[in-house]
């Protein structure tokens, strides 16, 4: 009988062995790893998503956890033990106020064009500010907006989410939290409602026709 496309000469390893494989890959990887990347490294027939679920449960409550970062996964120190890793260092490069404001606008309003950033800030954004954030790999180019000139948009990166311990941009603090912390004035930026209602990384589905893939 002819073998089907899904048949394999060998059976997939037991799920416990698959779990060990996923653990080894995540432990050795400096950057978060997607399920697709795990599947590409593991033997044919493995189910990395199922192995991840078992591994994540196994690490629950431990000193390190299996955490989701964007569409990828990584092993990270448990949040309540982060203080053990802190030490005094000399900060050699600090973000300017303009860079901090630009980064915040991109995070809460992505995908956002440079003109829209300038409209929200009320002042122009220098090329150096954008370049610095791109060089730090905290923002990247998004899709072009289907408006006159087809301006490029900016979105935050997976590295940004990883640095701040966020699963998605939706985990950013909302408007009430920022105001309570004294980090935001009571009047919202022009043309906005609440920061807690910001869109996901790919933008509002109802506005997808405004961007090109």
Topology readout:
Elements: H1 15-28, E1 33-34, H2 35-41, H3 48-59, E2 64-69, E3 72-77, H4 97-109, E4 112-113, H5 114-121, H6 127-135, E5 139-145, E6 152-156, H7 158-163, H8 175-180, E7 211-212
Helix pairs in contact: 1-3, 4-6
Tags for this model:
213 residues; 4-stranded antiparallel sheet; 3-stranded antiparallel sheet; alpha+beta; 8 helices; 7 strands
Biggest sheet, open or closed, and with what strands and sense? 4 strands, antiparallel
Tally of strands: 7
| Measured distance between first and last alpha carbons | 44 Å
Helical coverage, percent range = 25-40%
Strand arrangement across the biggest beta sheet: 4-6-5-7
| Helix-strand category | alpha+beta
Number of helices: 8
Mean pLDDT: 79
Order of helices and strands: HEHHEEHEHHEEHHE
Radius of gyration: 21 Å
The unreliable regions are 1-7, 183-211
- What is the strand content? 5-15%
- Gross morphology: elongated
Structure description:
It is a single chain. With 213 residues, the chain is an alpha+beta fold. 35% of the residues lie in helices and 14% in strands. The protein has helices at 15-28, 35-41, 48-59, 97-109, 114-121, 127-135, 158-163, 175-180; strands spanning 33-34, 64-69, 72-77, 112-113, 139-145, 152-156, 211-212. The chain has a 4-stranded antiparallel β-sheet. The protein has a 3-stranded antiparallel β-sheet with strand order 1-3-2. The longest helix has 14 residues, at 15-28. The protein is elongated, with a radius of gyration of 21 Å. The model is unreliable at 1-7 and 183-211 (pLDDT under 50).
């Amino acid at each position: 009988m002819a073998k089907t496309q899904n048949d394999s000469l060998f059976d997939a390893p037991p799920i416990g062995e698959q779990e060990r494989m996923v653990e080894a890959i995540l432990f050795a990887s400096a950057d978060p790893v997607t399920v697709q990347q795990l599947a590409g490294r593991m033997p044919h027939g493995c189910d990395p998503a199922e192995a991840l679920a078992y591994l994540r449960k196994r690490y629950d409550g431990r000193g390190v956890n299996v955490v989701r970062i964007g569409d990828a996964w990584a092993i990270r120190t448990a949040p309540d033990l982060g203080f053990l890793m802190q030490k005094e260092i000399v900060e050699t490069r600090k973000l300017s106020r303009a860079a901090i404001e630009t980064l915040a606008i991109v995070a809460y309003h992505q995908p956002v064009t440079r003109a829209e950033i300038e409209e929200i800030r009320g002042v122009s954004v220098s090329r150096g500010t954008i370049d610095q954030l791109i060089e730090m790999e905290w923002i990247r180019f998004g899709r072009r907006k289907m408006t006159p000139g087809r301006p490029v948009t900016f979105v935050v990166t997976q590295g940004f989410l990883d640095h701040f311990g966020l699963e998605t941009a939706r985990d950013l603090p909302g408007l009430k939290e920022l105001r309570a912390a004294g980090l935001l004035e009571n009047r919202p930026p022009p043309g906005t409602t609440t920061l807690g209602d910001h869109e996901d990384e790919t933008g509002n589905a109802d506005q997808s026709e405004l961007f090109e893939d």
